[in-house]
Amino acid sequence: MTLRRAVFLAGVATLCAWVLVPIYLIALGAIGGTETVNAWPKPFLPVTWTLAALRQFMNIAGVWMSVLYSVEAAGLCMLIAIALGAPAGYALARYRFRGATGFRLFVLLTRAFPVAILALPLAVSFIRLGLYDSPIGVGLMHSVLAMPFAVLISASLFQAIPRELEEAAWIFGCSGPSAFFRVVLPIALPGITATAIFAFVISWNEVFAASVLTVRHKTLTAYLLTVLSESPLHTQFAGGFILIVPSVLFILLVRRQLFSMWGIASR
Amino acid sequence: MAAIVIDQVGMRFGGTVALADVSLTVGDGELVALLGPSGCGKTTLLRIIAGLQIETSGRVLIGDRDMSGVPPRRRGLAMVFQNYAVFPHMKVRDNVAFGLRMTGADAARIDRQVARAAGLLHIEPLLDRYPAQLSGGQRQRVAVARALAVEPAVMLMDEPLSNLDALLRLEMRADLKTVLREAGTTTLYVTHDQTEAMGLADRIAVMAQGQIEQVASPSDIYRYPATRFVAGFLGSPPMNFLELPVTEGAVVLGNLHLPAPPSATRVVLGMRPEDLLLAEQQNGFAFTVQVTEPLGSHTLLTGQAEGVPLRVIVPPDLRPASGAVLHLRPQLDRVCWFDAASGAALEHSA
């Protein structure tokens, strides 16, 4: 019992460290000033407290615009992934149709296709369609990357909801759509929210396609890639820190909804 | 209130026949139990009546209205599911009120009906809880309350007690019977538990392999089973069967000559364990005891007679040792005769 508990706690500690140590080190570099960045061994607390690096980073021309582009692209990616992925997942979970298994595989296969190969033809067609160098184009590309997750996660989400709940709703007065919106959707909502955030984060973090498909309207990651390579270390840390913060905040905000809604474990 | 008429309903999945032209009428306010082993088609029949599955042939009428093509929500019925299907994201109160809200009932009526249904099932203290905070038995009560709250003309129940433990099942059975009788709802109740069917139903329909074998009152179906299958399915411990040849209008069983029904050459003699009496050697047949189970109210003996396994219920103070030989005779007015080939009941000879 105590051994099991010890192993369990050690596992928890390892997982926490795995996530927290890099974030901590980046934060340390971002707010500790030059001395902290160059100090070795690393101090636990910053040598000097300064927001100079962050301020300096924020003042780099174009950073705020690229944040806006990132949010635009990620928001679009999230919308498309949920709007198309959730219905597809529902169909996979509830209906038996010809090619259902094939469809699952096919959706997954889109991830097996390297973006590097697609990059050139994609850029060409985006130029023709007038989507090149726009956050909308990047968002479209990212929604393709997020789609397999959206479809498969929401399929397992809907599958976990007993069919009888829907049938009970039909019996007690619901039509097909109203049963979905009154019973299925509220139960699936925490999971769908998680999927949406996941799609957002996929887009927020993606750098390759974003770099290839844009020139002047770069998303934050793509912009940082071009700008930071010439910057001093502490500015790089500041950039990394600002890149991480939204994802962490987002997850923190919906954490309660993700884990405790109605006592149902979300997946 | 409304009667259910099931008219020649058939259900085929590809090549397999789940229901073979079943016909059954459930009278207004009557409680009919659909009893049968798993896979006999009883749940399929219930789901067809509910509109959750579409029959391949035949039709269902509820209160003289043809239900073909009518969606579940317009059939005027309520259903209790085997796994309860209580909505997990709604408080008990909202679960019970769900059906009424969907019909657009006004708030006063909803409150009144919810209070009434909750009162009938003793769940008033649970109304502000979520289903996750309830035990299985409590959830079961919520599911029944949700169904009763809409005051349905027809109530369908799909093995509602099968997920409860034995003691709770006994308690819920008595409560259900009271509640359904008070509401006067036409009820079709699917179960594989013969005690449940016997205890609850006005009439029992025994199903096997997609067909209804017999429909009768619990006492009639127990006393006069129409087929060997029905006879074996009802009763615990089940009926004993002895297959015997008929010679000169009688069968020989040990020292007994029992008058057999005419028109058969080989018959199956069915005797319930409680209808076998202790007898003298000269007017009984020999029974070798193998296992003695003293059960308090009676003693259950398992053994052999005429080379066939047999179960006998004897008074509680009788506890023969293993290997003992008893002599038994059946209560003649309570034995059943079946045709050995078809399994159909033969006319009573006694």
Task: Provide key terms for this protein.
heterodimer, A: 267 residues, mainly alpha, MetI-like fold, 12 helices, 77% helix, disordered C terminus, B: alpha+beta, six-stranded mixed beta sheet, five-stranded antiparallel beta sheet
The CATH homologous superfamily of the largest domain in chain A: MetI-like
Overall tally of domains of chain B? 2
Question: What is the helix/strand order of chain B?
Answer: EEEHEEEHHHEHEHEEHHEEEEEEEEEE
- N- to C-terminal distance of chain A: 28 Å
Cross-sheet strand order for the largest sheet of chain B: 6-7-8-3-9-10
| Major pleated sheet of chain B | 6 strands, mixed
Mean pLDDT across residues of chain B: 91
CATH architecture of the largest domain in chain A: Orthogonal Bundle
CATH superfamily of the largest domain in chain B: P-loop containing nucleotide triphosphate hydrolases
Structural class of chain A: mainly alpha
User: Can you give the helix content of chain A as a percent range?
Assistant: over 70%
Give the CATH topology of the largest domain in chain B.
Rossmann fold
Number of strands of chain B: 20
Number of strands of chain A: 0
Structural class of chain B: alpha+beta
Molecular shape of chain A: globular
Strand content of chain A: under 5%
Q: How much strand content do the residues of chain B show?
A: 25-35%
- The CATH topology name of the largest domain in chain A reads MetI-like fold
The helix-strand sequence of chain A is HHHHHHHHHHHH
Concise overview:
The complex is a heterodimer of chains A (267) and B (350). Chain A is mainly alpha-helical.
How is this structure best described in words?
The complex is a heterodimer of chains A (267) and B (350). In chain A, helix 4 (63-94) packs across helix 11 (220-228). Chain A folds into two domains: 25-59 and 231-267, no CATH class; 62-222, MetI-like (MetI-like fold). Chain A has helices at 2-31, 33-38, 52-58, 63-94, 100-109, 115-129, 135-159, 163-171, 176-205, 208-212, 220-228, 233-260. The two termini of chain A are 28 Å apart. The longest helix of chain A has 32 residues, at 63-94. Chain A is built from twelve helices and no strands. With 267 residues, chain A is mainly α. By secondary structure, chain B is α+β, with helices and mostly antiparallel strands. Chain B folds into two domains: 4-228, Rossmann fold (3-Layer(aba) Sandwich); 237-339, Nucleic acid-binding proteins (OB fold (Dihydrolipoamide Acetyltransferase, E2P), Beta Barrel). Chain B contains eight helices and 20 strands. Classes of the chains: A mainly alpha (267), B alpha+beta (350). The interface between A and B is medium-sized, with 20 and 26 residues.
